[in-house]
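Work through what follows:
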Amino acid sequence: MIPITLRSTEEFLLAVPRALREAAMALGASKWKTISTVIVPAAYRGILTAVLLAFARVRERPRHCYSPPSEIAFGVPAGLSRRPHCRS
């Protein structure tokens, strides 16, 4: 879930127009002030969408596909699992 969210968030942050960044810097804002007051608010909807899509993607995986604690504890390889129909 985290890699999906991070990749999408990065894309949305990079999609903020450079002119907005330069305008904030020209008005005397520090780099962190620019990030917190200009860039993140401009990309907020995209970041929220990325998080929601990541949750939806995790939710779509059937519950029975998760390994039971016994398989995790004893190190059963994924290929030997009794769940061949589940994606890994």
